[in-house]
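Q: How would the structure tokens look for this protein?
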Amino acid sequence: METSSTSEPAPRPSRKGRFVAIAGLLFLLFFLYRYFTVYTVRSGECRPKPIDPNLRHETRDAEGAPVSYPTRAGLPQQQRPLIVMSYNIEGHAELYRSDHIQQIAEVIRKYQPDIVGLQEVHRGTWQSRFRDQVGELEAITGMHAFFGRSYENFGGQFGNALLTRGTIVSAIVHELPSVGEPRTLIESVIDIDGTRLNVYVTHLTTWGKFNRSNRREQLECVAKHVASSRYPYILTGDFNAPPEAPEVASFIAARPAMLCGREIGVTHHLMNERIDYVFADWGWDVRSARVFSIGPSDHWPITAELMWRRPAGTLPSETGVGHVGPEKK
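A: Here is the predicted structure in token form.
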């Protein structure tokens, strides 16, 4: 006797399973796009200027450690603190938010900084709808701008930028050792309020602890560059790691500059970490440092108020910086 059997239909993938599969495929395609069009391996490239010891003043900080910084001879009396801002503007967000740069500019105008270091800035990329974010920020804020390209992609450019109400005397871009997305350091000379300053802007590699050794190499290179400064200097940047991360802790312990605001709080509200920084050489008097919980970016802007001379008889110290913020809006 023959028996007939009917096979059960194969179960259809669940909606959740289809979503996970599509998301995984999109991530793979995005990674392959980045791998073949953006990522690089660039190691050992660090060529700072020679250090002129005649332009450095050597002393000790409040903890007794030796530090040095450019001399302050001939600087005019400062009428008010210099306001320095560091701000990762998440420029690719303009792809889905057409007024993104307008909102970024409004944040900058609200706090009226004298110098701004910007990261994740786009010029003519598809992520920015082929707009020039540097030109737009320059026009809206009324500040002078310099763009430092980190890499080009399909005719557009991505990198860091500098804004200032002062005059940009000169600016160059240094390539940093990079594994993955290429990273750079802007070195500039600025004239402001009768004083000449060196201002640096950088953005270190991402991928957390997996790229920790590369960030350490980048920070070692940054330290060499700022140590060769001829003028009082400021460093702004997104380090993509918190102060307690080994590579950042080593940079701070080496004392190429002092951290402005050791306890200012979270600067990347999605990661819930402080990864954005303002550093100043040991000759500055840091009056305040704070983070503002405002703006369209996934990073919040941070500011430091600086006097280019410390009060007579005081030692350079990070611990004197008060914790103010984050400001709730």
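Residues 268 and 299 are 4 Å apart (CA to CA).

Residues 41-327 form a domain with the Deoxyribonuclease I; Chain A fold (CATH 3.60.10.10).

Upvote if useful.
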